[in-house]
Design goal:
- 35% of the residues lie in helices and 30% in strands.
- It has a six-stranded mixed beta sheet with strand order 7-8-9-4-10-11, sandwiched between helices.
- It starts with a strand and ends in a 5-residue tail after the last strand.
- Bound molecules: adenosine-5'-triphosphate.
- Adenosine-5'-triphosphate (ATP) binds next to strand 3 and helix 1.
């Protein structure tokens, strides 16, 4: 249960998933949603679980708090084996695990304050105390001025903030987020992710984020597990997996992006222009600023490249992310471009049209 960090310093796993499988029995057949899942999530981590549609993400997140009981295996929360708990103990355990969803799940007939008070009064907290706590939580999510508003009067981002405040009301140790930003535009997504980061740092809550977007994982997660057809394809530190994706699923999610808007408008036009299909992927992992690198490369080598995919962000003046470049036709020009990029500290790998 404990990992040694140094001689006197131990990092505890707050969630352990052991050999977990989940099968659903249908009238005529059985569906295997998850097979042999093993995960260790450290206390204080922001852990991403990413996969394509149907991979098993939602089933896995529901198994983490036994809303869905696994067919085999176990989940251990702070040393307590969920499979061994009575129904009552399980209900108590669940109050320490908050959950938010893509669809917010707010009570539309109640105002914001009452939505947050509801789980508190249900658990017996006097109304006055519940309201005081709900008002505090509204400050945490920066919605003090919306206490009397109804969910229908709020934007998607504001509704998700209310859902977060409600999830925090029972002082959880863990917050599970199931596609919590999938319905939001990029700017609102970012503000919700920053709020989750703040909650993680200030309140010390461990956060598990289920998503199909690598950009979400990159923005906030320290560790990630990639799930493919119900199995863990790859797991580890986000930066390591992003820089060197090995499994088919990781390469699909990272290199092809599955985020079609990330591809530049000129993909088809560019493919005609370059007459060569040779493409490389470069990864910016922190010590280079991408615009000067690419423009300096063109100036120095005299060879142009086509930017087929640019999924880069400026983090405090430092480039993070990736680009896929279409190389010039001539082999000597290709070699010059590749060696320039490598000399300037970028990781370079060849990519094919279809990730295998
Ligand atoms: N209650 C259920 N009964 C039968 N099959 C189910 C049930 N829940 C999920 N499944 C199946 O399990 C597999 C995994 O589904 P799940 O919803 O966990 O995937 P997901 O990665 O969350 O997908 P999405 O991103 O599309 O929501 C799918 O094949 C799905 O059809």
């Amino acid at each position: 249960m404990y990992k040694t960090l140094s001689r006197n310093n131990y990092m505890a796993n707050i969630i352990e998933v052991k050999k977990l499988s989940k099968r659903f029995a249908l009238a005529d057949r059985e569906v295997s949603a998850l097979s042999d899942i093993n995960l260790d999530i450290e206390e204080g981590d922001i852990y991403g679980i990413i996969g394509l549609s149907g991979a098993g993400k939602s089933t896995l997140v529901r198994c983490l708090n036994f809303l869905e009981v696994p067919t085999e295996g176990n989940v251990i929360i702070e040393g307590r084996e969920l499979a061994k708990l009575s129904a009552r103990e399980l209900r108590r355990e669940r109050t320490r695990i908050g959950m938010i969803f893509q669809s917010y799940n707010l009570l539309m007939q109640k105002n914001v304050l009452d939505n947050i008070c509801f789980p508190l009064t249900v658990h017996g907290l006097p109304k006055k105390e519940a309201r005081a706590k709900a008002l505090e939580l509204l400050k945490t999510v920066e919605l003090e001025d919306k206490a009397r508003a109804y969910p229908a009067q709020l934007s998607g981002g504001q509704r998700q903030r209310v859902a977060i405040a409600r999830a925090l009301a029972s002082d959880p140790k863990i917050l599970l987020c199931d596609e919590a930003t999938s319905a939001l535009d990029p700017k609102t997504t970012n503000s919700i992710l920053q709020l989750l980061k703040e909650i993680n740092q200030k309140l010390g809550i461990t956060i598990v984020i289920i998503t199909h977007q690598m950009s979400v994982v990159q923005e906030v997660c320290q560790h990630v597990a990639i799930i493919d057809q119900g199995r863990i394809a790859e797991k580890g530190q986000v930066e390591e997996i992003f820089n060197h994706p090995k499994s088919r699923a990781a390469r699909l999610l990272i290199i092809e992006g599955k985020d079609p808007e990330a591809w530049t408008d000129g993909v088809s036009r560019t493919r005609e222009e370059i007459k060569t299909d040779r493409k490389i992927r470069i990864v910016f992992s922190g010590n280079s600023s991408y615009e000067p690198v690419i423009s300096n490369m063109i100036l120095t080598t005299g060879h142009a490249v086509n930017i087929l995919l640019a999924d880069t962000r400026d983090v405090g003046g430092v480039a993070k992310g990736q680009m896929i470049l279409g190389l010039p036709e001539e082999e000597t020009a290709q070699a010059a471009v590749i060696s320039y990029l490598k000399e300037h500290g970028l990781s370079v790998e060849e990519v094919s049209d279809h990730v295998q």
